[in-house]
Design goal:
This protein has 225 residues and is α/β, with parallel strands linked by helices. It has one domain: Rossmann fold (3-Layer(aba) Sandwich), CATH 3.40.50.300. The chain is built from 7 helices and 10 strands. The chain has a 6-stranded mixed beta sheet. Strands 2-1-4-5 form a 4-stranded antiparallel beta sheet, with helices on one face. Helix 3 crosses helix 4, helix 3 runs parallel beside helix 5 and helix 4 packs across helix 5. The longest helix has 18 residues. The radius of gyration is 18 Å and the shape is globular. The chain starts with a strand and ends with a strand.
Length: 225
């Protein structure tokens, strides 16, 4: 589903050149539950941003669902993200003035869905993530774990090909983090949605069915469990 070939990413700041990725090859199948891990500066966040079409590589190719994302314009990438990708962030990134229902359904509204289908799909995914009865609460009225469940529902409601999660447990206590990871595992099994994490959290690595380690911009280990 994801094919990454000889990908490099170089950042230029003033007269300094930083090689964040130095020739990464990686193939990810549909339905995988994969964690990209490594120390600070290893390139894991850079790689996740490239897979998420939030940045472009300096060289090499990235194919997602058969499409070369490096050949797309900014507008095409925005549409591709909206239709094909879901994101879960460590800071939840919910809109504070919208309810849980509105935060999730907003994603479908962007795809020009409305009416009963929008409502039905939103309520169904909120029930799946354990938030039935909380759909009218605002983010400030929810715990951190509940807010992350809203974020997961928002990512999954449009039935994306791929969900990218950047340090999804970083702002959660260990018990809540474990619950969130088990929830995502269950959703991964049920929907066969591909999950790719970027993390340095051992708990996330332990739950991953495949662990890819980066160091100094290169893949140093690729382990299937």
């Amino acid at each position: 589903m994801i094919k990454i070939e000889k990908v490099t990413k170089t950042y230029i700041t003033g007269d300094q050149k930083v090689e964040a990725l130095r020739g990464v090859d990686l193939f990810i199948d549909k339905g995988e539950f994969l964690s990209i891990a490594g120390p600070s500066g290893s390139g894991k966040t850079t790689l996740l941003n490239l897979i998420g079409c939030l940045d472009k590589s300096t060289s090499g190719d990235i194919f997602i669902s058969g499409e070369n994302v490096g050949e797309k314009s900014k507008n095409e990438l925005a549409l591709f993200r909206r239709q094909k990708l879901g994101f879960v962030f460590q800071t939840f990134n919910l809109i504070p003035v919208l309810t849980a229902f509105e935060n999730v359904s907003f994603t479908l509204a962007l795809l020009s869905m409305n009416g009963s289908e929008l409502k039905d799909r939103t309520m169904k995914i909120l029930k799946e993530v354990g938030l039935e009865g909380m759909e009218h609460r605002f983010p400030r009225e929810l715990s951190g774990g509940q807010q992350q469940r809203v974020a997961i529902a928002r990512a999954l409601v449009k039935d994306p090909d791929l969900v990218l999660a950047d340090e999804p447990t970083a702002n959660l206590d260990s018990v809540t983090g474990e619950e969130i990871l088990k929830l995502m595992e269950n959703l991964n099994r049920k929907h066969q949605t591909t999950f790719v994490f970027s993390t340095h959290d051992k708990m996330v690595m332990d739950h991953a069915k495949r662990l890819v380690l980066l160091h100094d911009g290169l893949v140093t280990k690729d382990e299937r469990r």
